[in-house]
Write a structure and sequence with these properties.
By secondary structure, the chain is α+β, with helices and mostly antiparallel strands. It has 21 helices and 22 strands.
């Protein structure tokens, strides 16, 4: 039986197209940090052991023949082979095909694009999409994987040289688990040196809770025994005072696939009615897939040191998806499933506490470490704003953290205006927090909607993130002050600064312009709801504003860009009767010429707010005709 298994002709399979592309990139690109392949293979081995431990909760016979879970590393310098072996769950023939022949994770295309571009030299991208195994081909000219699944008598070998195909065939393998044999390239001798391998394990895998054993000097029958090279203790289970900053960052690298250091972390052990340990990290750089809805996110969940699942998204809300970390609970059943997580009271309590810890950590940056706080705003500010909508219970705390650009602090870079500071600076008589949404900071600053506010020195928040429109709609007020868009409804600032003589003159001019407004409303019928004299404008001829309770013009454009079917709405056209163009229009008796000027005024207002004209060529022709008679 064994002989027939060994002699059976190998099956040849083609790699999935994405795997072929990935292998080509790994083999032919230069990586700055090749050693990560060992981290990835040890991590896979550790996961296999965790999965077996989990399955053994229901079926302890799976562990019966070899209960001590471990990872072993063998070196054969003569054959130029490095072997990473575990006695974990193992893989069946079908699982070898599914796990090593295809990449089933959504978002793979984005990963490949990132690896193909300027980031191609950044090997720390490896692992973000579950492709860590393929990093073996960075250093190996061929890889053989032999595996026997726990509870099965069959063992299979998967072999590939990293080209377009791989082979499968049954083999004799007495022990449960998986061994990965790398035949190294000629220029990779460093990974046959035991001190080098020991250093890599201690750097990246010291925290892994099962022993990682390195074969000692000697070959063949003279080979030495195995020495455990990692501490083998879950770092989060150790007292905080015994853990160095370097050790925290090493764990962060493993959890986040991030070469940089963490901005900070919150390490807490909770005892009492609810017992669990949490270790939460805030990265210093946003992952490139932060806005990919299909990307993996969440924390690692352990129950009594037994690994349960990666990416437990129910442990943190979506707006904190950039946080990495570990939760180790004593109050969940070992057979907890994703379905149980969705409705578990303990999980809700842990989640609420974790949110508070992350937000408090960021608040601590704001008070004591401004450079770190600026990094959080720059990298994760737009994502935190989602929490204003998604998390009403913590809305006030999130709003205290957020910062915004404004007309008094509009430099490019990190916005620095806190809502509380804005309210404190409000002049007597101002009864609202004013804001303007726009595509860019530059577009916001040049908006005609700001003219009156600049003239009266009233600060306006400039909101240019795509999420801002949804965010402000979720904030009815802050510190008893309502938020009001300067581009919506009728706005008067008479209560703040008033020159009575100037105001009286303004009202007189407006009264004399009523007939012209009525003519404009008729000429632009179907395009605007009404035309009225503006309180906003001091320099521009006209601007468009949304009715008080209607969808903003900026939000309409965002939805249209996203492919949504937005019902057309008619804005209000506000005009400045003191502008030369409006004086020309008022003095135009002929209806045909008046209609031309009316369209010019309307189209200018569309362009001024960042909109697009239905007929740009007609606009150009109209300008030429009215300005030059051509």
């Amino acid at each position: 039986m064994a002989d027939s298994a060994t002699q059976q002709t190998p099956e040849t399979h083609e790699f999935q197209a994405e795997v072929q592309q990935l292998l080509h990139l790994m083999i032919h690109s230069l990586y700055s940090n090749k050693e990560i392949f060992l981290r990835e293979l040890i991590s896979n081995a550790s996961d296999a052991a965790d999965k077996l431990r989990f399955e053994a909760v229901q079926n302890d016979s799976l562990l019966a023949d070899d209960a001590e879970l471990k990872v072993e590393i063998d070196v054969d310098a003569d054959q130029r082979q490095l072997t990473i072996r575990d006695n974990g769950i193992g893989m069946s023939r079908e699982e070898l095909i599914d796990n090593l022949g295809t990449i089933a994770r959504s978002g793979t295309r984005k990963y490949l694009e990132a690896l193909s571009g300027d980031a191609a030299r950044d090997s720390n991208l490896i692992g973000q999409f579950g492709v860590g195994f393929y990093s073996a081909f960075i250093v190996a000219e061929s890889v053989t994987v032999r595996s026997r699944k726990a509870g099965s008598d069959e063992a299979w070998a998967w072999t590939s040289e990293g080209a377009g195909s791989y082979t499968l065939q049954p083999v004799d393998k007495a022990a449960r688990g998986t061994e990965v044999v790398l035949t190294l390239r000629e220029d990779e001798d460093e990974f046959l040196q035991r001190p080098r391998l020991s250093h890599i394990v201690k750097t990246y895998s010291d925290h892994i809770s099962l022993p990682i054993r390195l074969q000692q000097e000697g070959e063949g029958e003279d080979a030495g025994g195995y020495e455990t090279v990692n501490k083998g203790t879950a770092l989060w289970a150790r007292p905080k005072g015994e853990i160095s900053e370097e050790e925290y960052n090493e764990l962060f690298h493993t959890l986040a696939w991030d070469a940089g250091e963490a901005l900070g972390w919150a390490h807490n052990k909770v005892e009492g009615k609810l017992e669990y340990t949490s270790l939460l990290f805030i990265p210093s750089k946003a992952p490139f897939d932060l806005y990919d809805r299909d990307s993996r996110r969440g924390l690692k969940l352990y129950v009594r040191r037994v690994f349960i699942m990666d990416d437990a998204e129910k442990l943190l809300p979506n707006y904190l998806r950039f946080v990495r970390g570990v939760i180790d609970s004593n109050d969940l059943p070992l057979n907890v499933s994703r379905e149980i997580l969705q409705s578990n009271r303990v999980i809700e309590q842990i989640k609420a506490a974790c949110v508070k810890r992350v937000l408090s950590l960021i608040e601590g940056f704001a008070k004591n470490e401004p450079e770190k706080f600026e990094t959080v705003l720059r990298e994760f500010g737009p994502v935190l704003k989602e929490g204003v909508v998604e998390d009403p219970d913590n809305r006030e705390q999130i709003l205290k953290i957020l910062r915004f650009a404004s007309t008094k602090h509009a430099e490019a870079g990190v916005p620095q205006v806190a809502l509380a500071d804005y309210v404190e600076r409000m002049p007597a008589g101002q009864d609202a927090i004013y804001y303007l949404t726009a595509e860019t900071r530059k577009a916001a600053l040049s908006s005609p909607h700001l003219e009156m506010f600049k003239a009266k020195d009233v600060e306006v928040l400039l909101l240019t993130d795509r999420v801002d429109e949804w965010m402000v709609n979720a904030i009815p007020e802050f510190m008893d002050k309502p938020l009001k868009s300067v581009a919506r409804g009728d706005i008067k600032l008479d209560s703040i600064v008033t020159d009575e003589a100037a105001q009286a003159e303004k009202e007189k001019v407006a009264e004399g312009f009523k007939a012209t407004c009525e003519r404009l409303t008729s000429a632009l019928d179907g395009r605007v709801k009404e035309v009225r004299v503006s309180e906003r404008l001091t320099d521009s001829a006209a601007c468009l504003v949304a009715p008080e309770h209607a969808m903003s013009r900026h939000l309409e454009r965002l939805l249209a860009q996203a492919g949504e079917n937005v019902p057309g709405s008619e804005p209000i056209l506000e005009v400045n009767p003191q502008h030369a163009l409006m004086q020309r229009l008022k003095d135009t008796p002929a209806d045909a010429d008046f209609a031309e000027y009316a369209m010019l005024v309307y189209e200018q207002a569309v362009l001024a707010e960042g909109g697009q004209l239905e007929e740009p060529a007609a606009f150009v022709a109209r300008v030429n005709r009215l300005a030059f008679g051509g």
